[in-house]
Amino acid sequence: MNLNNKIKKAICVMSGGMDSTLSAYMMKSEGYEIIGVHFNYDQRTQSKELSCFENICEAMGVENKYVLDLSFFKQLGASALTDHSIEVPIGGIEDGVPVTYVPFRNGIFLSMAAAIAEKEGASVISIGVVEEDSSGYPDCREEYITSMQQSINLGTKDETKIEIRMPLVHLKKSQIVQKALDLEVPLSLTWSCYKNEQKACGVCDSCRLRLNGFKLAKAQDPIEYD
Asked: Distances from the Cα of 130 to the Cαs of 66, 87, 193, in angstroms?
């Protein structure tokens, strides 16, 4: 019997952030062997995110991991995360799709994760998308991720059956913080800031969401802020 059919494997898309890290820990708690996948796409905090990914994998005991470099997003621009001529908003969360949205990022990430899953014989791809308490990104919606799962299974071998797990999609940030604390996720190793790599700015959308989540969960965020 093929060994790949005997071991439950999950491809975990891991940015180094709190949400994707919790998603990976949830897969591990279900008995999956974790295969970490991280993307460098010339985002502002690329070095910090990569360092967080490596440290989180070490803490989890993840040995099989992929770090993929995508220069495409820098060439594309169109996002404050990849185009330094566009300022990262610091005035609070606004309605609509913010300028920090990277066009079709999750679709591209999931497509590459699907190729890895087929190669590794994994049955699950985990992604830490959050629909209700996110920054308003269209590629974080449950309906979209579900449609990607269908397309991935149509575009792979007949024997390939991949489920995309999004265990946080309907959680509030405070619930994510509490769940992470319950699973003893090393939140001190995670990073959410869109702007800084040394101390988190505390004022970008991502920092605001994170800080508010900790506040509502009545917990102390272990990372440093300006």
From this structure: 23, 24, 16
